[in-house]
């Protein structure tokens, strides 16, 4: 795994952690808001029940100058003895109780009520507990509420309730709940603010933590790259000596199957070393500012022309369908190397007397995507695991003694080149043809 891959995993880890944190925070904030809303509406319903039970009039408590009496006998108790429902239990658990037994209940409850007979004529308008609404406005609002399908709900900063009585008349009660509604809004605003602060703090902590976690992996990746480079350099000298000694033996007349085998293995090792160096360089960070306008059409066409005689000599047919004037910011060497790997691979693994196809085209709006497809006949490709094709040193021949040549590195190099350009490469199989598709984004 190279440094770029590790950095990509680090970003994915940070993103996943932040999404998880945000999800949990939103869940907690949502539960708090919903619980507060349910308890608040429950308390409001209790107040409505009491007002409606007294025909819209709150019984006035005993005068302050009168003899002190037991408060529980003077003030309304909205908590029924049989009220043991879940909402009441939750409210009691968090210390949230109705203020209906408070001495201030009579003075703090702001509401108006309108009683309609069964013919919807207003018979009584009660506005003694609210200063901002007169009798006429109260009746108009009550008639508007009567037309609503839902008989209990919010009405601006008010809550309303329509209660049908046994004689067919109805009482519409509108309670000023601006304090409770403002509290709910504050809960929302404070939750958003705290979630935002929490996200910022969490991002900083997670990023610092992620950097510390990936540092050993980055160091290992750098050491691996350095090892490959150093080992490749050191292996060149003994290979050169072996090649020179073998060539001297052949020049001295000592040429047999052993010297030929030695030369073949020397060439194989030399190619393998070159490929290891190539893939290491392909994984290095690309300097975008060094890219230049590159004629992709010309680079791919030249590569196809180079391999045409090779395919023909091998008894295979190669066709091309290359869109003209395809350009992008790139390194021409990268494009030539990519097309060389794919076409060479297609020739090697194409069926005898098979077909090879090279297609270059643009797709998408304004032709922002450049697609290079290299296909070849592959009759035995139906049961192949194509997900392994880009693994380093992977080859279909498990013995690694195939006469097709290659080291199982070419497609890995192609994938590294595509990663440098933030492109995609994949292998697919259909109708007896295996296709390698490279997609660049301009």
What features would you describe in this structure?
The protein is α+β, with helices and mostly antiparallel strands. The chain contains ten helices and twelve strands. It has helices at 3-53, 71-74, 86-93, 105-108, 135-146, 178-251, 257-282, 296-313, 332-349, 410-420; strands at residues 111-116, 122-129, 152-155, 158-164, 170-176, 292-295, 317-322, 327-330, 355-363, 369-377, 424-430, 433-441. It has a five-stranded antiparallel sheet, sandwiched between helices. A five-stranded mixed sheet has the order 7-9-10-12-11. It has a two-stranded antiparallel ribbon with strand order 6-8. Strand 11 and strand 12 form a beta hairpin. The model is unreliable at 63-76, 78-84 and 397-402 (pLDDT under 50).
Properties at a glance:
442 residues; alpha+beta; 5-stranded antiparallel β-sheet; 5-stranded mixed β-sheet; elongated
For the biggest β-sheet, the strand order reads: 2-1-5-4-3
Spatial extent as radius of gyration: 41 Å
What is the H-and-E element order? HHHHEEHEEEHHEHEEHEEHEE
Distance between the termini: 26 Å
Q: For the report, how would you describe the main beta sheet?
A: 5 strands, antiparallel
Classify the beta-strand content into a percent band: 15-25%
Structure summary, number of beta strands: 12
**Uncertain stretches of 5 or more adjacent residues:** 63-76, 78-84, 397-402
Number of helices, counting only DSSP H or I runs of 4 residues or more: 10
- The shape is elongated
Approximately how much helix is present in the residues?
A: 40-55%
**Mean pLDDT across residues:** 80
Task: Quickly give the structural class.
Answer: alpha+beta
């Amino acid at each position: 795994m190279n440094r770029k891959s590790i950095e990509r995993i680090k970003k994915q880890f940070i993103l996943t952690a932040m999404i998880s944190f945000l999800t949990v925070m939103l869940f907690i904030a949502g539960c708090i808001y919903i619980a507060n809303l349910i308890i608040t509406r429950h308390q409001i319903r209790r107040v409505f029940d009491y007002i409606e039970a007294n025909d819209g009039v709150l019984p006035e408590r005993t005068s302050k100058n009168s003899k002190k009496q037991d408060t529980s006998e003077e003030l309304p108790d909205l908590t029924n003895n049989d009220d043991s429902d879940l909402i009441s239990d939750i409210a009691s658990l968090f210390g949230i109780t109705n203020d209906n037994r408070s001495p201030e209940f009579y003075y703090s409850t702001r509401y108006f009520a309108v009683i309609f007979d069964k013919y919807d004529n207003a018979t009584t308008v009660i506005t003694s507990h609210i200063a901002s609404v007169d009798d006429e406005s109260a009746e108009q609002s009550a008639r508007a509420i009567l037309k609503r399908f839902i008989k209990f709900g919010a009405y601006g900063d008010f809550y309303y309730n329509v209660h049908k009585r046994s004689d067919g008349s109805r009482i519409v009660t509108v309670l000023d709940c601006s304090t409770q509604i403002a509290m709910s809004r504050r809960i929302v605003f404070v939750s958003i603010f705290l979630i935002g602060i929490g996200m910022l703090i969490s991002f900083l902590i997670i990023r610092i933590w992620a950097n510390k976690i990936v540092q050993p992996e980055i160091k290992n990746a750098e050491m691996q790259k350095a090892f490959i480079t150093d080992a490749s350099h050191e292996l060149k000298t003994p290979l050169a000596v072996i090649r020179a000694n073998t060539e001297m033996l052949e020049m001295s007349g000592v040429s047999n199957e052993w010297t030929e085998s030695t030369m073949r293995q020397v060439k194989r090792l030399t190619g393998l070393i070159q490929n290891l160096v190539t893939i290491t360089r392909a994984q290095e960070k690309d300097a975008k500012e060094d890219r230049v306008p590159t004629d992709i059409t010309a680079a791919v066409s030249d590569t196809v022309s180079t391999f045409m005689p090779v395919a023909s000599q091998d008894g295979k047919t190669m066709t091309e369908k290359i869109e003209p004037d395809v350009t992008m910011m790139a390194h021409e060497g990268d494009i030539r190397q990519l097309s060389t790997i794919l076409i060479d691979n297609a020739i090697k693994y194409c069926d005898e007397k098979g077909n090879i196809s090279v297609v270059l085209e643009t797709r998408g709006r304004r032709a922002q995507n450049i697609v290079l497809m290299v296909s070849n006949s592959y009759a035995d490709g139906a049961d192949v695991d194509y997900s392994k094709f880009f693994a380093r040193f992977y080859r279909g021949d498990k013995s690694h003694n195939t006469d097709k040549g290659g080291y199982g590195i070419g497609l890995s190099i192609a994938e590294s080149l595509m990663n440098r350009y933030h492109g995609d490469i994949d292998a697919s199989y259909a109708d007896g043809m295996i296709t390698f598709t490279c997609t660049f984004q301009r």
